[in-house]
Amino acid sequence: MQWMAFEWYFCAMLINAAQLCELLQGELVGNGEEKIYGPSQIDAGLPGTVSFLANPKYEEFAYTTEASVLIVSRDFTPKMPLKPSMIRVNDVYGAMMTLLQQFGQNGRPTPGISEFAVIGEEFEGGKDVAISPFVVIEKGVKLGKDSIVYPHVFIGHGCVIGEGVILYPGVRLYPNTVVGDRCIIHANAVIGSDGFGYKPDEQGHYVKINHVGVVILEDDVEIGANTVIDRGTISVTRIGKGSKIDNLVQIAHNVTIGEHSVIAAQAGIAGSTSVGKWSRIGGQVGIAGHLQLPDKLEIQAQSGVHSGKHAEGARLFGYPAIDYTDYLKSYAVFKQLPEYMKRIEALEKELKALKQTST
Amino acid sequence: MQWMAFEWYFCAMLINAAQLCELLQGELVGNGEEKIYGPSQIDAGLPGTVSFLANPKYEEFAYTTEASVLIVSRDFTPKMPLKPSMIRVNDVYGAMMTLLQQFGQNGRPTPGISEFAVIGEEFEGGKDVAISPFVVIEKGVKLGKDSIVYPHVFIGHGCVIGEGVILYPGVRLYPNTVVGDRCIIHANAVIGSDGFGYKPDEQGHYVKINHVGVVILEDDVEIGANTVIDRGTISVTRIGKGSKIDNLVQIAHNVTIGEHSVIAAQAGIAGSTSVGKWSRIGGQVGIAGHLQLPDKLEIQAQSGVHSGKHAEGARLFGYPAIDYTDYLKSYAVFKQLPEYMKRIEALEKELKALKQTST
Amino acid sequence: MQWMAFEWYFCAMLINAAQLCELLQGELVGNGEEKIYGPSQIDAGLPGTVSFLANPKYEEFAYTTEASVLIVSRDFTPKMPLKPSMIRVNDVYGAMMTLLQQFGQNGRPTPGISEFAVIGEEFEGGKDVAISPFVVIEKGVKLGKDSIVYPHVFIGHGCVIGEGVILYPGVRLYPNTVVGDRCIIHANAVIGSDGFGYKPDEQGHYVKINHVGVVILEDDVEIGANTVIDRGTISVTRIGKGSKIDNLVQIAHNVTIGEHSVIAAQAGIAGSTSVGKWSRIGGQVGIAGHLQLPDKLEIQAQSGVHSGKHAEGARLFGYPAIDYTDYLKSYAVFKQLPEYMKRIEALEKELKALKQTST
User: Fold this and answer.
1) What's the pLDDT tens digit per position in B249-293?
2) CA B341, chain centre distance (Å)
3) What is chain A's alpha carbon radius of gyration, rounded to the nearest angstrom?
4) What is the dihedral of CA B320, B324, B325, B329, to 10 degrees?
5) By the 8 A CB rule, do A43 and A92 touch?
6) Percent over 90 (pLDDT), chain A
7) SS (H, E, C) B166-229
8) Beta A15-16 vs A35-36: how paired, if at all?
9) Paired residues of C167 in beta bridges
10) What distance in Å separates residue C192's CA from the closest CA in chain A?
11) Kind and range of the H or E element at A120?
12) pLDDT in tens, C216-271
């Protein structure tokens, strides 16, 4: 199979550098007639694309990229001649997002309810909802206006879903899940599954604790693909407004995530823990159950948080997690432990010799 | 979007405190006329709900909760006046489970086979099975009585499924998977996928090893959402009776899990390892392949088990995992390593000085 | 429920030992009339099955297995009498794979397009494609000949899929994903979901960065169940030819995986990192973003790779990852840290005493 050229998947746009510059309210240096049909990464730019120099780390690629146009910061001064035309802007990231917004209208299901969807009684759908083939919606579900439900989504009875929501293919909402406005849930994510709770009987066999609580996703939450959020035992598992959760994350029963927090892929948060606002949790982090964490924690990837006794804004690392810098200092010694061990042994020998000498 | 009141999702029950007390065979202290429409958590109790004081850690909330009724242990003596009526019971957890059972009948698919399901030849379905829309069942499948198959489930040919089983939406059973009685498999779990086995050819290219074994889930097993259990290479991957597996867990080919073990979220067990009975495996634990582990191991979250040489009932921690207490002791020193390093350097200096003095 | 006998799930083949020997071009020692109906593991062999002694570690089972035929290496000399007939071959693994190939034809969807599939405009399907019930294919998709699409698969618009591909149930391909020839994607894997990228606005609220890049899986790639691969931000997330990725793995946006690499379950690779060719990445490994890793790295399970400064072929372990042997040496001391601490304290005491003596 031949890999199709880069152009293949970007065909939505054809403007020239001057028009692009006007769109971004920038300052053009070079040829305004350059034709642009799509964006590219600076280290993989092709003729006919526009690249971005947002991170100074990538400056070297500015001098080698094949891109036709390069968007740079107003204060950028090239150290050597540049092949692409430049567009200087105040905010390179902002310009990038404006452009991606333009390029990104890749096509979405149009409003309407597929004849191949199964929809239960007492359904209340807002204006312009899109419900795709092979969707199943149980009894008594509310779906706010402009929301999009992709194929193979399951929505359990009593779910209440806000406006402008996107449910990607294969999302599963267990009964009574609440999804706020403008939430995005990626493919195969599961929201509202039973918590992992059992009580041993007299023979030590595990008896399931029935989970009758719910999950509430507040407004503007995004949930990654294949992530799982368990329902509360008898209360609520809650994801605060504006928080973003990556792929393959585990959120256990009764957990609360504060507003505007981000949780990277494969992190896991055990039952009944409360994560503060504005927190940043790295990939593969594990957080023990029943902790009350302060706001603005920054937890380095793979750390294991076993205690809630951290200051607001603390930066954590390690297993169990301690202060980030302290962990790195200890780990720097750890790497030399065999040598230190020898130094201890040398000290012991010398001291022994010295004692024998001095007696 | 306005968050609906707590009451919204618990509307199944309306009894008063005296009736509740009778149901739980407890002893009432306070007003028997209090109306109860649902349960709540003690730290988030609202008027009209019943809360539980099961864990002494939460006692402080007993004095502040807004719940109308509080279920407590018979030996609980409040340190200050309580607002809710109390019901004293022998076993608070037991009472909680009785109640959750009552509240938890959230509605399930009713028996019957959807006209929108595709069912292969030689299907044998027991009495009162429920098969939902958009289910696909391949040839020669057996499904025991009272089992529930939610929408979008795929059951490969030759699968044998017991009685009273629940397969939540999007569960995938590869061919010839065996599921015991009363098993519960949560949404999007995959059972019976190929093991991760390849053999390099002469050019070092990986050639797939065909996996023709199966997965057997014995009776009373529960599998979490998005968990994956690979089939045996030529034999069986087996989950023992009564074992419970959380979300996003990886069980590789040829693994055996003993009876009545629990495995928390995101743990992974590599190929051909055997986990004993009554084991407790924490979240994000990794266990290497080809180990024979003893019964009743307790493995702390995120540990990495590289060896099978542990005593029955051992408690493990670390990476690679060692005795739990030993790990914590070593880690306590680890945190002070920069200081110890300085002490070693100080010793070296002092000793050097002393040697110069004494010579 | 009674567990069906081993025979239940292997009924495809009935030959005798002599025929088997001829098939494998081996040398028979023992009874050629032994009837074989399927394979078994050496430690779980039953009469009527053929087992393999491929790994010398399992030699003990050769003397106790109930299997009727045992395939061994030509240079294997039993230390005591064997019950099964032996077939000596040059390459035991090769023989095993030949057999598994024979046994493994478990039945797959036959070519044809289900009347219960929904297929968009401008679809181009090659000869003998199989498209199962409840599949949804959006506009403008190409699907190469002999490819199999299992039930509940979603293929977004503009996807280009090669020849001889297998998409297992519930696979989700976001728009414009490219899948090379002979790729296998296991159940519920998600390819092409949005990367985890946001830009804080003035209030610190996270604003979604639109992801318009794609994912390209080159030829002969296999992707495990419930694995997620995010699309590039504006460019490509690429999995190199012949690479194999296990279950529940996270591959973030803009990542490149070189050819012929293997990534075990639950590993995660952060955004924009490039993994070399012929790499071997263990389970639950985490790799930080924006790293350029050399070829042939071997990363031990659960390690955390924070730097790209490693030699080609390096073997890594630890968190952050260092040389494998160095980590083990340091960890050996770590386990004895409390003792070393005491030795430091003893040294301090002795030195103090000695100083007092010598002054």
Assistant:
1) 999 999 999 999 999 999 999 999 999 999 999 999 999 999 999
2) 43
3) 27
4) 30
5) no
6) 66
7) EECCCCEECCCCEECCCCEECCCCEEEECCCCEEECCCCCEEECCCCCEEEECCCCEECCCCEE
8) antiparallel
9) C149, C185
10) 10
11) none
12) 999 999 999 999 999 998 889 999 999 999 999 999 999 999 999 999 999 999 99
**Tokens representing residue A135 in the block:** 């969707």
Q: Which residues of C touch B144 (CB under 8 A)?
A: 1
For chain A, what is the mean pLDDT?
Answer: 89
Q: How many CA atoms lie within 13 A of C329 on its CB side?
A: 15
Which residue is associated with the tokens 């914590």?
B328
| Portion 144-203 of A in contact with B at CB < 8 A | 144, 152, 154, 157-158, 160, 162-163, 170, 172, 174-176, 178, 180-181, 188, 190, 193-194, 196, 198-199
Give exposure, C23-59, as e/b (b: 16+ Cβ within 10 Å): ebebebbbeeebebbbbbbbbbbbebbbbbbbeeebe
CA-to-CA distance for B98 and B90, rounded, in angstroms? 13
Q: Using an 8 Å Cβ cutoff, are B163 and B181 in contact?
A: yes
Q: Does C3 touch chain B (CB under 8 A)?
A: yes
For A27-33, the CB contacts below 8 A with 24+ separation are A27/A74, A27/A87, A27/A88, A27/A89, A28/A85, A28/A86, A28/A87, A29/A85, A29/A86, A29/A87, A29/A88, A30/A69, A30/A84, A30/A85, A30/A86, A31/A85, A32/A85
Euclidean distance between CA atoms A112 and A322, whole angstroms:
53
Q: Taking Cα atoms as reference points, which of B57, B92, B56 lies closest to residue B74?
A: B92
CB atoms inside a 10 Å sphere around CB C64: 11
Would you call C169 and B175 a contact, using CB atoms and an 8 Å cutoff?
no
Rounded to whole angstroms, the Cα distance separating A310 from A299 reads: 11
Q: Which of A286, A305, A220, A210 has the alpha carbon at shortest distance from A253?
A: A210
Please tell me if residue B265 touches chain A, with a CB cutoff of 8 Å: yes
Say what the pTM is.
0.84
Residue range A98-118: average pLDDT? Answer: 77
3-state SS, residue B256: strand
User: Which residue, B141, C217, B116, C287, is CA-closest to A264?
Assistant: C287
Beta strand A206-208 with A172-173 is unpaired
**Bridge partner list, B71:** B52, B87
CB contact under 8 A, A225 and C193: yes
Residues recorded for chain C = 359
Contact A84, A30 (CB under 8 A): yes
Q: Give dist(CA C42, CA B232) in Å, integer.
A: 13
* Nearest C-alpha neighbor of B13 from the set B73, B72, B110, B98: B98
Give the H or E element holding residue A231: none
Residues 303-342 of B with CB under 8 A from A: 319, 331, 334-338, 340-341
Q: A230 in helix, strand or coil?
A: strand
Please check whether residue B220 touches C, CB under 8 A: no
Is some CB atom of chain C closer than 8 A to the CB atom of B250?
A: yes
Q: What are the pLDDT digits (tens) for A305-336?
A: 999 999 999 999 999 999 999 999 999 999 99
What are the tens digits of pLDDT across the range B160-172?
999 999 999 999 9
Give the list of residues 6+ apart from residue C309 with CB closer than 8 angstroms, or none. none
Query: Helices (H), strands (E): how many in chain A?
Result: 5, 39
B317 in Cβ contact with B298 (< 8 Å): no
ipTM over 0.95: no
Distance from CA of A55 to the nearest CA of C (A): 12
